TrEMBL record:
Superkingdom: Bacteria
Record's signal peptide: none
Family, per entry: Belongs to the class-I pyridine nucleotide-disulfide oxidoreductase family.
Residue ranges annotated for the FAD/NAD(P)-binding domain, each copy included: 7-316
Protein known as: Dihydrolipoamide dehydrogenase
Annotated ranges, domain Pyridine nucleotide-disulphide oxidoreductase dimerisation: 337-444
Binding site for NAD(+): G177, G178, G179, P180, I181, G182, M183, E184, E200, G262
Cofactor details (free text): Binds 1 FAD per subunit.
MF annotations from Gene Ontology: flavin adenine dinucleotide binding; NAD(P)H dehydrogenase (quinone) activity; oxidoreductase activity, acting on a sulfur group of donors, NAD(P) as acceptor
Cofactor: FAD
Binding-site list for FAD: K52, T140, G141, S142, D302
Species this protein is from: Meridianimarinicoccus roseus
Amino acid sequence: MERIECDLCIIGAGSGGLSVAAGAAQMGASVVLIEGHEMGGDCLNYGCVPSKALIAAGKHAQAMQDGAAFGITPVNPQIDYAAAKDHVARAIATIAPHDSQERFEGFGIRVIRDWARFTSPREVVAGDATVRARRFVIATGSGPFVPSIPGLTDVPYHTNETIFALRERPEHLIVIGGGPIGMEMAQAHKRLGCKVTVIEAQKAMGKDDPELAAILLDRLRGEGIEVLEETAAERVDAEGDRITVHTSGGAVSGTHLLVAVGRRVNLDRLELDAAGVAHTPKGVTVDAGLRSSNRRIYAIGDAAGGMQFTHVAGYHAGVVIRSILFGLPAKARTDHIPWVTYCDPELAQVGLTEAQARKAHGARLEVVRFAYDQNDRAVAEGKTTGLIKVMVVKGRPVGASIVGAQAGELIALWALVIANRLKMSAVANMVAPYPTLGEIGKRAAGAYFSPRLFENETVKRVVRLVQRVLP
């Protein structure tokens, strides 16, 4: 067995692991990177990239049916589902070289393509190699959680790891799970010519602001997607080419089934007990600096048991690099982390929702709102369905919620503001180009200051006084 000694061993070549590996190697550390599955992880191969590529195909199909208001005769698109999947594959293939083994070996990193397991607090075994490192980073990500619904294992079903390889268009896709993954795939498949039913045991999009989520759900239902809320899947069976999900509200039959009820952290193979690493089913137990109970071992991204987003893994990479390479104190925050559901309209959030902010700040909270239909660019493009809400405490935003066109782009401004603890005046002072959807953020800031300026009697008295004394 080969023995390797290094400064840093990273387990998992997804977004977070690759970021740590590249940064550490280029700053002079000796690095071993271990990956037992696909380079690029879930995001490149089964998540962010393929889902957004399929959503893009669905948008093109929908645009062909939505032109009447612009003087364009609507047509029913001729959809080649397999060709849409070819687009998905091309998107993955285009990005893959950036995450490839060859690229990272070019940084001087030793890449081992096998599964890792700890054998002691300082060593892991992967394939024919034993790696002893000064520090380890667990970046194993997560995979689809499959619930224990009676009969599910006896029928063919898809998860995000298999749905993108499907070449035959489903006649009727049943989606169990009304969260972001389920809803994105539901809309994409409906626009690509499938009948779609979503089954959700609680409220669909339940982690988002309910007022804004309702706007998205209205659009999805308006496009013909059946969304069954507070409806639990109790049993699944199949007969011939039909799959039936028996629910608390009756039976739903279709041709294909997608399970999208959440994610499960990938820790099973690691044998963490041998390394003295505390963990739960939700992930590795870490402190604010992402360090585990074994001070030599860190966990980042989904493996750290918190928010499950690719950009969080990338952010965590920067936190642990500061600590591992430079010995400097570093702590991970969550209050400035945005997330987006890439349906049409998009639904985005950063910081606290209105309900969370009211619970945390009570009467000190102010909520400012601005509607898309008051934005000139939205009117020009017929994208007037949407709303922004900004939660403000003593002049400083603590959260922002947006539903509407390009909400995922617009939320970035508020992520910047919250990350740097800026005040609403910073947004009000910004000059946004006209006409853009970006003005929505500035107008929200204006909605905060307007009553302070235009409904303030002291301001009016000062203005009248100044007007009398000016020459």
